[in-house]
Every structure is written in structure tokens, then in C-alpha cells.
Here is the input.
Amino acid sequence: MRHFNVNLLTLAVISALSFQALADQTTTQAASQDAGLADEKAVEVISVLGKRVSYANNTTDENMKLLQAPIGNVMDLINNLPGINVGQGDAFGSDDYTTTISMRGFVIDRADQQLGITIDGIPNGGSAYAGGSKANRYLDVENTRLVEVGQGSADIASASLDALGGTLNFVSDNPQTEAGARFAYTSGSHNARRYFARYDTGQIGNTTAYFSVSDSFNNRWMGTGSNGHADRLHVELKTVTELDKARITTRLSYDDAHEDNYQPVSLAHFKRTPRWDGLTTVWTGDPEIDQNFAEAWSTLRENTLFYVKTEWYLSDNLELDITPYLHLQNGRGDWLPPFQVYATDANGNRLNKGAGVRRQNYTHVTAAGIPILDGNNNQPGAKRVSSYRHTHYDKTRYGTTANLTWDLDNHRLRSGVWLESQQRNQTRDWHDVIDPRVSYEFNAQPYWVHFDDDYKHNVAKFYLQDQITLGDLQLTLGVQKYLVDISRTDNLNGKGKDKIDSNSSVLPSAGVVYALNNNLELFAGYSKNFKAIADSILEGKAAAELQNLKPETATNMDLGIRYFGQQFSFSTAIYNVKFNDRVVLLRYATAADGTPNYLAAGDGNFDNVGGVNARGMESSLDWRLSQNLSLTSSLTLNRAEYSQDVLASKTTPAGAPVLVRDYRKGDKLAGIPEKMLSLALNYHDGNYRAGVSAKYVDSYFGAAKHTFASDGSEVWNRDKLPTHTLLNAYLGYEKDLDNSSFFSGIDLAFVINNLTDKDYITGGSEGAYLIGAGRTASFTVSLNF
Here is the structure.
């Protein structure tokens, strides 16, 4: 097994050479616009198998959109690409709290953000639940032209503080040159409904533009009655203006979402009940039960992103683009603790703001409304109380990217800068539930503000790259450098201001692409990637306690082959990744019995836990079997393991402190599938279309942390998650109508996800997994005007 990568690469080379001998030498690539370039000027040609660069990369195509319901999450578009596994708690991906992505041993989940996300090259501002925004906050599926995925490495100009394992660049659609309107209505399982409308102005002078709005709703897929819901309003506006020597692109997106969450579960819970996450759907009036009421586990987020991109063609060989941007966010996360909190200062005086020196939970008040702190809850007139806990997130982020490209003889020189300033506030307040016997309706005035913290970070990134063409050989050399300052100001508890720097060293990259002929090329690349320390680590620790915490780095090496033919294309890469100084969340905010620790300021403690080594193979195939029938496939083989022991202080069941191995050298990295295979068959014949896809995920380990059994013996909690295969299918019909009709065209689409209604676990985090959604269907009718 340790040598599978070399053997499979050999097979890949043989396969590609065989098809080269059979295929026509004329290369027909699947072209797409490059992040907004769509005219007679030269644009970079992109294949479904990726760009012709020195690192492994892939690109989504239109068929991947057809396999997902329009109401779905744009993150699902990449799920069938090699190396990637997307986990969603909700059937339509409408729960950001439980959205996870893994790629080559790197993840995006509630604890870790190790993959960069950009929107038309604009940084997304992080992907964390607490203040972050994934691509679904900025794009509708219909307005997403494609997604560029750089596995392991990314384009050197990519602007992200999280791109340890590569970058996902979501490219928005361009306005149409012909005026027109489109209206679509979707209806589906779990009371799903969605309205979508888009108007394209067509060519007005030298400008094209579109405006779109969508409104979506669906209930949580598990349970009935008050089982929670998701409700989303989304708006997009984009304009492109062509000048003689320049192009100006503006884009605005607005997203207002209310999402009721899903609860991650243990493997044992899943085996007992694979269709219920433990949240309740009926209000009982008992706060101990109702703390799990699905409607009260909520994520509320409002995001606005605006940018103006100017591209200047200064001469035939000199180009400059500058893109200033602004991002505004506000939001809230809700929970329903079954008690209220009595916080006091050093003199015993109750506080309504600040953590205080002592906190005591109480569950009853007297008939006069006085907290009962001695536990004498059976006195006459005593009333039950509970809280509605809100965590508020507000962010203002602005910055600019600037890139200069100079073609000089056989050199293509690129240099650029990314500057960003971000200010965000995180506040937690506690509200009393007016009458817990009736509902969770709460008093708008909080009875206690737990904390109020301001965070600020300033980023400066610089890069320089030279791409040298020597006949059939292309050599790329580059360096980049990050300067990152982060700070936290405690506005309530008198702790002052904490500040740490998270600067990178000089990060080198190098690569070669060698064209064997017009169809076949070899490529190899090396890059050192960087992830800045997140400001969220200052939630639980003072800066003085974090002086030894290092930014994460990873070195990535790719070696591969690509073949582009008229009817068949193929790409295979083997890779080796060394991940150093991994920062993880060592302790989740849970009590001993596993219930939420509502008083925890953050989600846990962060620390460097040593290294991870990952190696494997990724392969993509795109085969046009006939004029109307095509097959796409991807294969992933990955082996990621800890490269050294990690020690941690633990407490035995008897209460004795002991130093143990928290992670063991040679153990497999938790939560990363080792084997995945996807296949998709698509049929298009005039007005009709149909397709089916299958994705196989082999069993993998979900947890690696050390624990103690009740008898004091050591236990390595491995949680081997079961194998699953998911099938998706779609049917569609479209027809252009004659000019006498009010409508210019109609489109009907039917999509079924998880066709066989498979029970499965997907994503989540170590020891806490997501129950995958059952069979889900949707039907969409679209009318063009």
C-alpha cells in the first residue's frame, strides 16, 4: 500500500500514451472565461482537468451544476473533483455550522480552516463559523460559472490567509450580451421552495450587466413539526465595461440567511439512530429537554461584498489589474441553556456586564423573581427559568489586490501585493426566556453580557514570479511573503489589549511543465504554503501565553501528467505533503457528559500538535463516448498520518494529572478519507438531458485522540466510519419558443440526491460527525423572457 502512488502513476502514463496513439492530434479543450474575461482579447484556456500549470488543479463543468438542485449550496459543486470531500448536515447544504471540506489531509470545519476560498480572486475573509463566510454567502449556483481548485498549491497571486492545502476560487458568471430575463421556481423535499429571477441588460454602449435575486426556504430534513428551517434572501449585481485599453468589472452580492443547525453526533449515536441528531421538534416546557429544541439552534448571518476590478492593458506586453473591495458582515449564533447565570465581582455584587470573579448557575427564582442560589427550588411560588444565549458577530473588512504582468522575450514576470484591514467584534449576551413553559421567546434586553471583544488584523502580502519558456519546457520560479498583525481588545473585563504577529518567512515555489507534444505534458511543482494564526485563538488565551505558538506551514510537491485529446482527456498527479506546526483545537467546549459548555468563551484551546505527512494520488478523466454521451471520473488515494508523538496533560478518572501521548506518530489523520471514486455519466440530445453520478467513499478513521476508559486504562478512540456510496440523478428538458410566444424559452429540471436513500456519516470533526441526508428530490421550472 505504501507504494501505490508510483505504480498507479506508471499505469496513468501508459494509459495516456495509449489514448494518444488512438486519438486525433487536434486538441479540443473545454474552454471557459478566466474570472470575467469574455471578449476578443486573448483569454486563458481552461479544461475540466485544469489549467496547464505546474501544480495539480481541476475545474468544475456545467454537468456538475446539473447534478445539484439550484436551491443547493455552491460548495457542493466541487464534491466530485479528485481529492475533495464535502460534508453537509442539511439536505440542501443550508447549514453553514455543519459544512465541512477536506482535501489532501487539509480541512475546513468549525475547528480548522486550512483551505483558501476566493470569489473572483477576492479573499472571502476566512471560513470559520465565528465570523467567517464560505462561498455560499456570496454566490448562487446559477450565477457561478465555474470553480477553480488548486489541490495542494494555488496560483501565487491567490489572496488568502488559510491556503495551506490549496485554494478554491469561485468564479461568477458574466453578463449576457443579449438582453433578457429569467424566472425559476423550485419545489422539493422537506418543504423546499425557491424563487430565482435574473435580468440581463444586454449591450448598452460598452457595458453589460445583470441583476438577480433569489429567495429560498426548506425545513431540516430530519424530524417533523417544529424541526427547524433555513431561510435565505440573496442578491447579486455585476457589470462589465469594455474600454479601449481597459476593462472595469464591478460586483455586489448581498446574502441574508437564517439557518437552524444540526447537531454533530458520535458514531455510537449514528449506529443507534441513523436518522436523528438528538435535537427535538416538540416544545415540552421542560428546559432540560428543550435546550435541544431544533428551532433554537440557529445561525443568522448577513453578508455584503462589493468590489471594483480595473484591468489596464498598458502595452502589448504589460498588464495591470487593481481590485479594491469591501466586505460587511453581521450575525448571531443562538443556543438555549437550561439555566440562568449569576455573575458577581470580588465584593459579591451581581454584574450585568463582564465575566466577574464568580459565576453560579441557577434554575429557579422565587415568586418575587429573586434567583434561588441555594438549590431550595421546591419552595412555594418558585418558577423555572432558562436563557437564550446569543453570540454576535460583526465585521468590516476592506482591502485591495494589485497584480502586474510583464511579458519580456521568453519571460513572463508577475508581481503583486495584497493589502487588507479587518475589524470585527464578538459579543455574547444572555437573555431570560419569558416563560419556558410556553416557548423560547426571550426578553430583548439581556440580563448579562458575558464578553465584548474587538479584533483587528492587518495583512500585507507581496509576491514575485518569473515564468520562463524554453521551447517545450516551461519553468516557473516564485517567492511570496506575508506580514500579519492581529490584536484583541477586551471591552468588559479589564484585560486590555493583546497583540501578536503572525508573519511568514520567505515562501518559495518552483515548477516545470514539459510538453511532449500538443496533447501530452508532464508537470512537477513545489511550494511552501502558509496559514496565519487566526485571531480567534485570542478568545481563550492571553497573548503572553501564545508566544510559542507558530503559524502553520506546509510543503507540497506534485508530479503528474496531463493529456488533452479531442474525445478523451486525462490527468494524474502524485503528491507528497509535509504539514508542520499544525494548530488544532485540543478541547471542545463541552462538559464532562458531552453536553455544550454554554459558559465557554471560545470553542476550545489551540496549540501546535506537531507534524502531518500526506502522500497520495489524484486522477481525473473526461471521456466523450459519443456526440451525446460523456463520462467523467475522479480517483483519490490518500495516506495522511501524524509524523511525531504529541504530548498533552490529561486527568485520569480518579482525578490524577498525567502526561500522555495525545496523538501517536504513525497514526492516520482523523477525518480524512483515504479512498474515493466518483463517476458521472451525462447524456445530452437536443432538448433532452439526463445524468447519473456515483461517489464512493471508503471507510476511514474519524478520531485519533487519546482517552481513558472508566477503569483508567488507555483508549485510542479510532471510530472507523463506514463505507458509503451515494447516487445522484437528473432529468431535464429545454425548448426555445417561437417569437409569437410571450416566453422565449422553457426549461424543466428534476434532481434526486442520495437516490438509494443511503444511511451514512459525512464530514464533521474529530469524534463528532454529521448524519447525511436521506433521499432528496427537487423540481425546477425556468422561464426565459
Summary: Helices lie at 4-22, 62-66, 267-272, 287-290. Residues 4-22 form the longest helix (19 residues). The first strand starts at residue 57 and ends at 59. Residues 1-45, 587-594 have pLDDT under 50 and may be disordered.
